[in-house]
Predict the structure of IrrE N-terminal-like domain-containing protein.
Amino acid sequence: MNKEKSGLEKILSRIEQEKVSVVEIDNLIDESNHPLQYYTVVQRGFGGTYITFPKHKDLRPEEHLFALAHELGHIILWRKRSNSMNQWTRVSRSMMNQGHLIGILLVIAEEICAWIEGYNVCKETEIETTHFITQSIYSLGTYVMFIPRVIYKLAKQVLGIYLGAFFFVKVASMHPQIQSYFELSGVFTVDFKWVTPLFQYLIIVFFIGLFLKQSYHLIRAI
């Protein structure tokens, strides 16, 4: 009587059907000297495609299984889509690594699709998926956590621009030479009512510069 395959054996068999290798690698270490649970898909031209997983896993067997299913989901998506679409996927990851909000959102969308594909694979191969959704949500949270950091950084920059406008007007209102310059420009009284227009002007310049910077990084990534 043949013994039924375990879930891990089933997913490894499914990965093999896609002509993909699974490679164990030494753990990467974070700043606190803790091992990183790093699963990823590597594509190496003539060397083929393979999935890497950490040698010393601090994961339950089912978590390891679902992580492999998720990486297989990435490969299935990659093979379904056009080359141009896959290029945008690479660009979005590059933008995320540079701290761009749009890149982060695109990567989260890509990760959700890969988890869905991984879930479908588990269902097709009759693998138990009781904790699959929980693990996928936890994993997506590691990407979502980038969003508050980007928003916080942007908020600090905007606040800095406002304070810069405020102190500029304050100094200008107290300095006779600056006052005389504004009088030549047709502004005879420099007071705090000019803070808001100056801030609005500076914030427009800031966002135009930010757009140009992100466009530059996008073109370089392509």
